[in-house]
Write a structure and sequence with these properties.
This protein is of the alpha+beta class. The chain has helices at 33-45, 75-85, 95-105, 113-121, 127-140; strands spanning 2-7, 13-19, 25-28, 47-55, 60-68, 89-93. A four-stranded antiparallel β-sheet has the order 3-2-1-6, covered by helices on one side. A two-stranded antiparallel sheet has the order 4-5.
């Protein structure tokens, strides 16, 4: 399962979703209805994934797009990449790491500038940034 936050090119929030390898897309909280309709239609008609193939004749690699089945274990990642190719800003969420960071930060005073900054940026942080902050917080205990 993959949790994603999707924004428009103008940085407007469209939806937060969970995608599983059965092709099920679950919308979390508020979401843009037009965007939801677009997603439903795309899944109904099928999405594609990019694959790199080696051509023996030319001895080079070529990128092609192939349909992916909803029950394919790679569907969530292919769906994320497909959204990006459609021009959406896609942020992969890691709620378990975010919750662990919040748990540790509860021990810090509410007026701590680092705590305020981390909590403010947490929803937009990459996996790498969250992991790094979590490790730093663990060392500070």
């Amino acid at each position: 399962m993959l949790s994603l936050k999707i924004k428009s090119q103008r940085d407007e929030p469209l939806a937060t979703i969970r995608v599983d390898h059965g092709g099920l897309v679950k919308f979390i909280g508020e979401y843009d209805k037009d965007f939801a309709n677009l997603i439903d239609t795309a899944i109904e008609h099928g999405i594609t994934q990019r694959q790199e193939l080696y051509d023996q004749t030319t001895q080079s690699f070529a990128m092609i797009e192939l349909p992916i089945k909803k029950n394919d274990v790679n569907f969530p990642l292919a769906f994320k990449e497909w959204l990006g190719r459609q021009g959406y800003k896609v942020i992969e969420l890691h709620p378990e790491i975010g919750e662990e960071i919040k748990k540790i930060l509860r021990n810090f005073p509410d007026d701590n500038e680092d705590k305020i900054d981390i909590l403010k940026r947490l929803p937009e942080m990459s996996y790498l940034e969250m992991s790094s902050i979590l490790e730093g917080l663990k060392r500070s205990l």
